[in-house]
Model the fold of this input.
Amino acid sequence: MLLQELLRDYLPIAILLFVATGMAFAMVALGHLFGPRRDGKAKLMPYESGMTPIGSAVRRMPVRYYLIAVLFVLFDIEVIFLLPWAVVLRKLGLFGLIEMLVFVTILLVGYIYVWKKGALEWE
Amino acid sequence: MSPVIGIVIEAIIKSALMVFVLATAFAYLTLAERKIAAFVQVRKGPNRVGPWGLMQPAADGIKLLFKEEMVPAGADKVLFFLAPILTMIPAMVIMAVVPIGPDVELFGRSIRLGISDLNVGMLYILSVASVAVYGIVLAGWSSANKYSLLGGLRASAQMISYEIALGLSIIGPIILAGTMSLQGIITAQQQSTWYVLWQPVGALVFFLAGLAEVNRAPFDMPEAEQELTAGYFTEYSGMKFSLFFMGEYIKMVAVCAIATTLFLGGYLGPYVEQLPWLGILYFTIKTTALLFLMIWIRLTLPRLRYDQLMAFGWKVLLPLALANVVVTATATVLLG
Done:
């Protein structure tokens, strides 16, 4: 019974995934089939508005991007915690509300700390 | 065995229709954007191919098909090939859980107008939206080009920053409806009223975060033409380029469709109970209105600076969305 429900709900999505993937690959394949190919050394150079590129493109990047990624993981998990709570909030009533207010308060302390430390500034 | 075959056949037909409709919507959205931009700037816009320029998307498609595909020297060939495909697929698949109309009777079967209705629909949307970042990061990294790398980094940082506000803004409707299924949220709106009236802040945050999520103006830093030429798809040409374009525009459609479902009552409208097919019309009208709003915003507002953009996401939208969740939850529990 459960298996049948899973099939009914997720099989159509798997089929859509399959069709969309097929279409994406078909489009790229068509482009390869019809497009001309005239390679040249200067043509395949990375585009830098006409300049000859200096150095490799894969280089060190600002640490802020990593910082944003770490903060994202923290706060996104908070959102994932809130989702099931939001579904059953009416049944939980006051108890559920207070529990979540405690959780959000703890997170707010962390948020204010991050803000004061300057992790959200982009210089 | 036979019910499974029924499900498979129905799903194949609906999937093919969905892909076809989304591809057509993409084609005519590009034309609509160019036409509206032209009228805003007192020009005529594309008007040579077909009456009123209506065949322009087909001409563009044929042109792109016959363009040369370049792979820059030093690029990671496999990732360079996979990145546009990885960008396009989530954009198509995210629409699977959005109902575009009520159930209808056809050939003696009750057909759902939508691919599927998951009981974790909103979670599905959030997770598929996260996958969309990969294609962009891989495109930026695999091109071995400085513009692409910068564009990819900016895009990923921006998308994950606004994803938090996006995730928080959908919690309001879920609390009110008591379900994550999109069909359930529409049914709940049928019993009360459109959630944009109860959740104006949530709707606003969702729309702004959605704009940032699909890299549209005024949040189009990742592909800022004047400074990064085209951002993460600088080195792409031909059909691969058009896949990126397609992914971006279909994501626009998806954001507008989800916003319609969550806040504007989805397919609900007058006489929809008597005539279920009218639902598709209402859904299309509401989604098109939101798409027009997106294009209008792009033509009106200048681009934000990158530090302003990150500050807006982290210091304005995130607290606003969190406050909205707390206020909604408190009001729901205390007032019933």
The mean pLDDT of chain B is 86. The CA atoms of residues 233 and 288 of chain B lie 27 Å apart.
